[in-house]
Amino acid sequence: MDRLDLAKNVQDLVVKRPDLVKKESDLKNLTKNNLDRVGSEESEPTQARSGGAVTRSALLELQHDGTLVAPTDYGTENWITFDGVSGVTILGGTLDGQGAALWACKNAGKTCPIGATSLEFTNSREVLISGLTSLNSQMFHIDIHDCENVNIQGVHVTASGDSPNTDGIHVAGSAGVNITRAIIKTGDDCISIGPGATNLWIENIGCGPGHGISIGSLGKDPNEQGVQNNGVRIKTWAKPNQGFVRGVLFEDVIINNAQNPVIIDQEYCPDNNCSTQPSGVKISNVTYRNVTGSSATAKAVNFDCSHTNPCTGIVLDIVDLTYGSKPATASCTSAAGSATGVVLPPSCLAS
């Protein structure tokens, strides 16, 4: 297996692969912004640049013992990208995206660059990310797109609570992604699930500050894929769309003083400049099982579904949410399903 040790000093990066390295001097060509091709002309290249990508299919293990610091020119959409790889393992280390100045620009309403996602995998399979720490990402911390069989475990994500669009982990167009034992503190979704995500498993996640574990937003683009078999927020844009969310299980969730503990929002419009058309995304067969905790607002459960394409098959199976010393409430619009066991606030679902 290849192994790339990312040391505390980026200048000391070393590629350890005897069949590629002809002489020791080959290793000295590695610089902070450029991992150039090392080895014979017949070998496939390994490149990692600021805004570039690693694009080799061979097994690759990255052991990252120090801190990598992103450039602050905010000139690219991705910082570290792996595209079309198989069998890559990332173990430990810290990525510092240095996003604070960009967040301040955006929060001031100025014209700003988009900023970079810190770590992205696209069109890849058999990936393991373990023990990684991601700090202050400019945009998403970790983005998994069009991948298969990805395991993310024991990661720590930290950014300011007012940092915009700094989703901790984003998954879209991917199958067989497992996210376990993660601590995520950020300004946007802790975990966001985009179009085309299937067979996604999320377990033992500590989330907050942040917007929770969110499915969506969906329905912004007309040809988006659906989301299914995932397993507290589901959000879709209010516009015509053929997408869907189905077969979702939220289980053993503990909520501590969240603004929206349980919510389906089919009128999602972050910039308040959207049309008033109903959402075309169909939401069905969503189960909330053993969801307990407290709400920061009186409305602890809010199912605001499309009036032209109502939510169906919603199941509340032991949901117990409180609002201080006062009773919490539930609100349902165009939502049908069933309730079993202790359900507080009382279910408002149509049968």
Polypeptide structure, described:
It is a single chain. The chain is an all-beta fold and 351 residues long. The chain has one domain (58-344): Single-stranded right-handed beta-helix, Pectin lyase-like (Pectate Lyase C-like, 3 Solenoid), CATH 2.160.20. It contains one helix and 30 strands. The chain has one helix spanning 100-107; strands at residues 2-6, 14-16, 34-35, 48-49, 53-54, 60-64, 67-69, 78-83, 88-91, 94-96, 117-122, 125-130, 133-135, 142-145, 148-153, 156-158, 169-172, 175-185, 191-193, 198-207, 213-218, 227-230, 233-237, 244-258, 262-268, 282-295, 299-304, 311-322, 329-333, 335-344. A hairpin with a 7-residue loop joins strand 1 and strand 2 (14-16).
List keywords for this structure.
cell wall biogenesis/degradation; 1 helix; eleven-stranded parallel sheet; 2% helix; Pectate Lyase C-like; 351 residues; PbH1; disordered N terminus
